[in-house]
Design a protein that fits this description.
single chain; about 90 residues; Nucleotidyltransferase, domain 5; about 10% strand; Transposase_IS3/IS150/IS904
Length: about 90
């Protein structure tokens, strides 16, 4: 897959400051064609993820939003365990 360069308008410092980081990340992944057609974005209930603007960005990118239940510490446990194991494996092999 060939990467595309950003257009000057998407990556200017002023534009990066105006947009929340989560929205900028989804826009950049969309621009570089890094999102799978059936992508799911799982997050907590932070204000940056529950905003109307962020939901619109996900919809425009064709990404399905997913949120855990409030107060459930087990919601993200499998992903956290996987990445902790991955980091351990990477560090022990280097």
């Amino acid at each position: 897959m060939r990467r595309q360069r950003c257009s000057p308008s998407c990556c200017t410092p002023a534009r990066r400051r105006r947009r929340p980081v989560a929205i900028a990340a989804i826009d950049l992944a969309t621009h570089r064609s890094l999102l799978a057609p059936d992508a799911v974005f799982h997050s907590d209930h932070g204000t940056q993820y529950t905003s109307t603007q962020f939901r619109g960005t996900l919809t425009a990118a064709g990404v399905r939003p997913s949120m855990g239940r409030v107060g459930s510490c087990y919601d993200n446990a499998v992903a956290e365990y996987f990445f902790a194991t991955l980091k351990t494996e990477i560090v022990t092999r280097v």
